Amino acid sequence: MTAVGTVHHRPEPPDPAGAAVATAGPAGPAGPARPEKAPRPRSRARRRTARRRANLVLFLMGAPALAVLFVFSYLPMAGLVLAFEDYRPRDGITGSQWVGWQNFTYLFTGGDAWHITFTTVFMNALIITATLVTSLTLALLLNEIRDRWPRAARLYQSAMFLPFVFSWVVVSYFVFAFLDADHGLVNHLLTSSGGTPVDWYAQPGWWPLILTLVAVWKGVGFWVIAYLAAILAIDPQYYEAAALDGATKWQQTRRITLPLLSPLIIINLLLSLSHIFHADFGLFYQVPRNSTLLYPTTDVIDTYVYRALTSLGDVGMSAAAGLYQALVGFILVLVANWLVRRRDPDKALF
Amino acid sequence: MSTATIPPRARGPVRLNWSRALIHFLLLVCAVAFVAPLVMVLAASFSSEDGINRQGYGFLPRHFTTFAYRYVIGDPSQLLQAYGVSMLVTFVGTFVGVFLMAMLAYTLVRKDYVLRRPIGLYLLFAMLFSGGLVPSYILITQYLHLQNTIFVLILPYLVSPWFVIILRTYFASLPTELLDAARIDGAGELRTFFQIVLPLSRPALATVGLFTALIYWNDWWLGLLYIDNQNLVPVQLFLYRILSNIDALATNPQMTAGAGAPVQTVRMAVAILAIGPIVVAFGFVQRYLVRGITLGGIKG
Q: Which residues on B lie below 8 Å from A74 (Cβ)?
């Protein structure tokens, strides 16, 4: 859901008219309005104090939320200096010894960094692609049946959206019911059809596929709704004109629907890209049930950092991994946004 | 879902044809596949342990029984406690969070607010960059000392830049004449916000509120990191611990004091009890969620 709001976050063009209105009317609790006939110095001064007061009130209204963000988003960013320290709780962040790049050297020479980075990016790329293709396909298909069977279309849409409201813990239960070695449905079907059962939670090779399926199952409903809404917003006249010209259904989809959906698709991809170095911890920790045997294909940066912090207690190296992750992701989204902006500023994120 | 979201497309009489029927069939299969896991877990929770052990999981209960539920509810104190924690966190977090975010969002649509642009950047940067787990963990445990308090389950999720921006977008779409009229009538910022903006923005507030509530109700991450105290464990973490504890029981024969404890079915019964509220609520709130997604997505 995170994706959608950002769509609107574009710097707005300066609005001289709005500013003029604002200065003309008395703002804030400064007293009743009085139409200004002859601007006198006194009233101008009063307007200025009124404006200042209004600004103060506005600042105070926003302050609590800004403060929460400051403490829980911005202070941790400053805390990233930990990546360059040999942290000891007794000495605190400011008192611990400065060790320069040592934590990074340790992280990258161990070979773990490359492995977890590859797994994270590879799995995210799989999931992003699969979700995009599936959600677009389902939205287009739903669009085809909705005028004939509107109720069925709504029902299907609900069914697809349902997994979105489950937590990852619950999803891990669901997956377990399928994959449990002894009682799971999949092995049950395998044995009854004469195959050999698989010990799923010990076979890393299957997990890229399993995790992608689970991620699509849980997340695709959101995007189906978003894309379907965007399809519905397309002016039907385009299709009428195309139909008059003899365009087939497929041609209409390719030449009208997809191009008109492209802004939303690009925003979606940009946002996904900004998170490509951040794996969904719940998906990679809960669903494989933190099984050590599966680490070769399921250990991502986030689970690695979590383990390094909680079981090894290696604050410096975990912080180094976190900084590396945040920085590379940030640079990536800046570059991608710059590329999009160069081609079409309207489609850029910011 | 409201009918309003899916108006029939005006395009002459519709004929039943084979490709359309095929599409319908495909979608039906998909929809069933999306719901199937829930059905399976539901069936398992009403099965007998013996049935699961011999026949495995399926889409119908194996030897229908409510034993697993009676087993769980036989000692409901912990589950109820966990429910209580989750509900408290969800209600307080949602109401306070939406209120704070709405106030901030309102200030961002006021054009004569000098800090409008800087605050926009402040939100954007918080969205694209993060300190990550380690500094937050050190901050919360070593400096704020919030571990094992109810606040650690609420405060970190209180303000989300995305939701602020969704609210801002909605507020910006309100007719400006209304706000200007209020100001000309002498209403201050607070009064305009409470008496005009908030009542007119119910759909946006409901949507953001629902998404926030969903985040709080489904969270186990904060509990996993910061909560050791049994009395403060939220539902999802409780569920996670049951899973690991039952595994410990099942793999360690010496610990199986309550011999014949229904391992498989109890697990699934607890899962159903944990998602119950959200699935029931899903039916009622879904159209708001859909409207919210549409609200955010359509203008892209």
A: 126
| CB pair distance less than 8 Å for A138 and B38 | no
CB contact under 8 A, A33 and B111: no
Quick check: B158 pLDDT over 90? yes
Measured between alpha carbons, how far is residue A165 from residues A29, B136, B153, B215, B241 in Å?
44, 26, 19, 9, 20
Shared domain check, B60 and B155: no
Could you tell me if residue B9 is inside a domain?
no
pLDDT of residue B277: 80
Q: How far is B191 from chain A (nearest CA, A)?
A: 9
Q: Is residue B133 part of a domain?
A: yes
Cα–Cα distance measured from residue A29 to residue A259, given in angstroms and rounded to the nearest whole number:
49
Q: Are B246 and B267 in contact (CB under 8 A)?
A: yes
Give the β-pairing of A97-98 and A85-86: antiparallel
User: What is residue B12's predicted lDDT score, i.e. its pLDDT?
Assistant: 47
pLDDT of residue B68: 82
Interior/surface letters B44-64, b for 16+ CB within 10 angstroms, e for the rest: bbbbbbebbbeebbbeebbee
Residue position matching structure tokens 């090894």: A312
Cβ-Cβ pairs closer than 8 A, A with B, add up to 371
- Inter-chain residue contact B268 with A6, CB threshold 8 Å: no
User: What is the CATH classification number for the domain harbouring B182?
Assistant: 1.10.3720.10
Q: Which of A20-34, A47-61, A129-143, B261-275 has the lowest mean pLDDT?
A: A20-34
Whether B2 is covered by a domain: the verdict is no
The structure tokens listed for B12 are: 């002459």
B179 with B94, same domain?
yes
Indicate the pLDDT class of residue B226, thresholds 50, 70 and 90.
very high
- Asked whether residue B96 falls in the same domain as residue B49, the answer is no
B121 has a pLDDT exceeding 90: yes
CB contact under 8 A, B6 and A31: no
Would you say how long chain B is, in residues?
300
Q: Is B104 on the interface with A (CB under 8 A)?
A: yes
CB contact B285 to A (< 8 Å): no
Higher per-residue pLDDT: A271 or A298: A298
- Residues of A with CB below 8 A from B218's CB? 165-168
Same structural domain, B169 and B54: no
Same domain, B116 and B158: yes
Position B257 scores a pLDDT of 44
> Does B27 share its domain with B148?
no
C-alpha separations of B77 from B66, B73, B80, B231, B258 in Å? 19, 8, 5, 10, 18
SS3 state of residue B8? coil
Is B242 within a domain? Answer: yes
Based on the fold, state whether residues B201 and B222 are members of the same structural domain: yes
pLDDT of residue A275 exceeding 80, the answer is: yes
Indicate whether B223 and B93 sit together in one domain: yes
The reported pLDDT for the residue numbered A25 is: 36
Which range has the top average pLDDT, A248-252, A288-292, B224-228?
B224-228
Q: Torsion angle of alpha carbons A167, A173, A176, A182, nearest 10°?
A: 170
B139 to A89: CB separation less than 8 angstroms, yes or no: no
Q: Contact A183/B53, CB-based, under 8 Å?
A: yes
The answer regarding whether domain A102-347 maps to CATH 1.10.3720.10 reads yes
Which residue in chain B is spatially nearest to A9 when comparing CA positions?
B165
Judge whether residue A32 has pLDDT over 70: no
User: In chain A, what percentage of residues exceed pLDDT 70?
Assistant: 88
**Residue of B5, B6, B116 to mutate, testing the A interface (most A Cβ within 10 Å of its Cβ):** B6
- CB proximity under 8 Å: B 128-157 to A: 128-139, 142, 144, 155-156
- Total domains in chain B come to 2
Q: Which residues of B touch A188 (CB under 8 A)?
A: 55-58
Contact B34 A159 (CB under 8 A): yes
The answer to whether residue B24 neighbours chain A at the CB level (below 8 Å) is yes
Domain closes at, from B47, B65, B83 = B65
Instruction: Provide the residue range defining the domain that includes B60.
Output: 18-65
